[in-house]
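Researcher: I'm preparing a figure for a lab meeting and need a structural model of a single chain. I don't have an experimental structure, so a prediction will have to do for now. The sequence is pasted below. Please return the structure as tokens so I can convert it later.
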Amino acid sequence: MSGALSKPMIRDGEPGAQSSGKKDILRLEGISKYFGRTKAVDDLSLTIKEGEVFTLLGPSGCGKTTTLRQIAGLEQPNAGKIYFRDRLLVSPAENINIPPHKRQMGMVFQSYAIWPHLTIFETVAYPLKARNVPASEIRRRVKETLELVGLQGMEDRPGPMLSGGQQQRVAVARALVYEPEILLLDEPFSNLDVKLREQMRVELKLLQRRVGVTVILVTHDQLEALSLSDRIAVMNLGKTEQVGAPKELYEKPKTAFVRDFIGKCITLPAEIEGVDGGLVRVTLRAMAGVSWKAGNSCVSQPTKGQKVTIAIRPEDIAVNVPGSEGDQNYLEGEIDALLFMGDRFECHVKIGEEAILVYAPRDRQLEEGMKVRLHFAPEVLSVWPL
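Model: Understood. Here is the structure written out token by token.
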């Protein structure tokens, strides 16, 4: 989407993506959706702010795409209400359901839905023609929008001659051309290869910043959500487990599901030995005689002998750090498998019957079968109730 990104489509008086004190633009209140006896969305309430990138993140079947389709008007909830600012869009109880084309929203589907019999110009112009916009205005707005997504000069190219990245740009242009206030993206990068996916993430972020449109993104890709979002709603079984900024969700998950779903996390069974100076001392049940101090307890009232789970991120573990021999929190083991990832090593360290994944810098002299010591500070360990 590089190219002529010089014409932001923010209308006069509207806040841009970087404005402070953002107002609510969309509210979901107690939304529920059934398919037969299956409850796809369960009493879901969310508030989205103007100009933010808000992501619905979760595994397949968690209800995120169904939620997006209800926002777009492609599905109607069985219960609840949806507001666009103070305008009621949906209320089954009041028999209110504003049709999709009157909701001031543009949608980019997972398949992009690029019609093979149309040129780029015709595809992007379609929403304007459907709204009976004059031909001269259509030409102007299509030209500006294609410049915005870096497709200027390609108006006559037919759909079948587009690459994956170009198809995505066309789909975004078609969604933006009638200047919607909310852009809905359903797994927009899933059909792209890894390198193109990375490129398009950056381009979408830059485009959103310039345009100022509110974006609601659906994805199961954690990296996608963390890198693009202002806020994320982690969904599971039709409900939200936690809503917050990416860093908050990663560093301070409130539930075990969020902890385990976002990023990689090592979990070990343990038992509380006591509370020592504000830190919880735990004994690992799988490693007799090993005790640690943990800095972040999710147990409301830790008691001696309580069975718990210890959690730690692989990147918070240091391998063979000189000068840390006196640390209380460490483990000793043997590298069972060593994977070179380019920017780092992934080390699978065998400790008794347990195997722990850790990362090490690529300049570290490591090899399989090597004895290593793993160090970690108490504050990176968290204690979770069973």
